[in-house]
Amino acid sequence: MHKEQRDGRQEQLSDILGKLFTSRGWGRKNDRLRIESAWAEAAGPELLKDTQVLVIKRGVMEVAVRNAVLMSELAQFHKRKLLTKLRAAMPGVTLTDLKFRAAAW
């Protein structure tokens, strides 16, 4: 399907839908769900209950952790394995590092 623009060009339906998704924030919500799903898969149920994905900025995923002991354990013993799992779960997303932050929720 095409929509005629004022200058005579035709716009693809996929372009129109892409603009609609962006303007409504739906793409960001979908991205967020994808990131949270990848973290849940990589972390597993035990870690998931005490962690929460905050954001991915410039290839670094920031994860909130309920306590300092777990934060230290994740950074020292699980980081490499988690990064490998996350990269596999999110092809096309550049993920260079994991940062853990102490938080309570």
Features:
three-stranded mixed beta sheet; alpha+beta; 105 residues; GMP Synthetase, Chain A, domain 3; single chain; 24% strand
CATH architecture: 2-Layer Sandwich
Give the name of the CATH superfamily: DnaA, N-terminal domain
Query: Which oligomeric form is depicted?
Result: single chain
What best-fitting shape do the alpha-carbon axes yield? elongated
Using only CA atoms, what is the Rg? 19 Å
CATH C-level class: Alpha Beta
Strand content: 15-25%
The run of helices and strands is EEHHEEHE
Determine the CATH topology: GMP Synthetase, Chain A, domain 3
Spatial strand sequence of the major β-sheet:
3-4-5
pLDDT < 50 runs, ≥5 residues: none
Major β-sheet profile: 3 strands, mixed
Structural class: alpha+beta
* Integer average pLDDT: 84
Structure description:
- This protein has helices at 13-24, 26-48, 68-89; strands at 2-4, 10-12, 51-57, 60-65, 97-102.
- It has a single domain (10-102), classed as 2-Layer Sandwich (GMP Synthetase, Chain A, domain 3), CATH 3.30.300.
- The radius of gyration is 19 Å and the shape is elongated.
- It is an alpha+beta fold and 105 residues long.
- It has three helices and five strands.
- α2 (26-48) crosses α3 (68-89).
- It has a three-stranded mixed beta sheet, with helices on one face.
- β1 (2-4) and β2 (10-12) form a beta hairpin.
- Pfam families: DciA.
- This is DUF721 domain-containing protein.
- InterPro entries: DciA-like.
Give the helices and strands, then pairings.
Layout: E1 2-4, E2 10-12, H1 13-24, H2 26-48, E3 51-57, E4 60-65, H3 68-89, E5 97-102
Parallel strand pairs: 4-5
Antiparallel strand pairs: 1-2, 3-4
Protein name: DUF721 domain-containing protein
InterPro entries: DciA-like
Pfam families: DciA
